[in-house]
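Regression report. Comparing outputs from two consecutive submissions.

Submission 1:
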Amino acid sequence: MGWQPIKHYPVLAASGTLGPKLCEGDRQVPEGIYRIKSLNPNSAYHLSLELDYPNAFDLRQAERDGRNNPGSAICIHGKAVSVGCLAMGDTAIEELYSPWCTWVKTR
């Protein structure tokens, strides 16, 4: 059985350009399937979900490409501004902010 989306959420803001995340500070948003690593109720962006980026796949790709720092601290959060994360707006992040939400797909 494959992955079945439960719901799609629009991204209100994301920095960077179309293309993969390559290194810390490039302001790109990674594409892939990530676990929710932690919930932050005290985020400066209303609420936030920290993703487990880089995961094992991202680390293997970085090593294969000779990159030693693929980045970190990627979050899905409220508000409508972003510097390398995914800004979903306050209403959407309130729906997603749950200990039952454990996996997300970004693209």
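Submission 2:
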Amino acid sequence: MLIPYFIVFSMLSGLYAYYVSPAAGYIGFPDQPNGAKLVASSLALATFVLLTPADGSARGFFLNLLLATYIVPSAVMYALADKPNYIAFSIGLACLIVYFVSAIPLRRIRIAKLSANAIMRIMVILTIFYILIMAYVAGFKNFNLNISRVYDFRDTAAENIPGIFAYLSTIFSKIIIPMGAVIGLMTRRYTVVIVMIISSILLYGFVSHRGVLLYPMVALGIYFVLTRSPQFSRVLIVLMIIFLIGFIDAAMYFMVGAGSIWGWFVDIIVKRGFMVPALLDFNHIEFFWDNPRYYWSASRLTMGMISSPYELPPANLIGKEFFQNPATAANTGFIGNGFAQAGLWGMVAYSICVGLVIAFLNTYGRYLGLPLVAAMLAVQMMTMFTGTDFLTMLLTHGMLASLFVLMVMEAPAARRTASHPKSSP
């Protein structure tokens, strides 16, 4: 896996130098390559690749996911943007903790079981009911399916929908719809897959968030790839193809200029999907290294018993400090948020928790099968790695409910037969 990962690292580095830095250097992507840090990044990347299991387990899949979507972009930032050593070491420590804690063997919790078909039917009913409620509450005045005009409608759509629907839409887009689609594909209920995809399109029209369209496709794509081969190398090949398309898109953007369709893919997928989360973690650690931490004072869990040192929540504070706009929500994953909450110890605590979640998924991956568990949880784990606070993801964004679904789901018939083969006469 060393060669595929270094190809991915090289391609992302090339995209950083060719597109990300020239197009977005002003927001924190400088063109400042450092030869010594490039060597250090390469050695660190090689170490993590060698530590990552290649055994087709759920642990191996999710550690590869962390490596490909977070560690590689962070290594690119460190080497090509000349980021500080202390931040890179902190990120490396957090990832090492995740690696080692995820190796802890956990026993499967045995509780009442529901068949995959029953869970799928529940998700379909909930999804259709929610889409009908959204149509009633939001109406079609601000309904938009034009991806290029997403920002023209997003704020207005948010103002016209009660706050509770922001949380519910996140749960449906990242959990219920992708899970229902994956189970439909697994059980060959292709009508369900179509219903879930149409639902994601309709939900996107109401909330104007591009991720709503992307999440079910990512989940279905992962399931399709892993049923053919459990090796993560297939995913890396897909990633290489994505980066190649990114190069073509960037080249056309520079040839044609702004105002055309060119540049959307490389900007959304490469810059925002891979490089911005890495940048925001560097920003979080840099700011909270010497400034007061939150100690979860902005969380509902503390019920106001801890006074906050700031008027803004962490994401908006970073938006104000680094992007001069307090309305910018610079959301990041477990590393940056852990550091914002309690410094190095907060980052360590969150890293331990993420490692335990992966250990849990590894246990259920053996029971339910890697393709199902990986496809159902990949989007949520990527969000935990790069997009939201660990406790927020676990509680508010519904990951705890996803883990509960795994606990109550019956193993597919093929796996039950394989685990308990009939004895011959």
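Expected: both submissions complete independently.
Actual: both completed, but the second showed a warning that disappeared on reload.
Relevant detail on submission 2: Confidence is low (pLDDT under 50) at residues 417-425.
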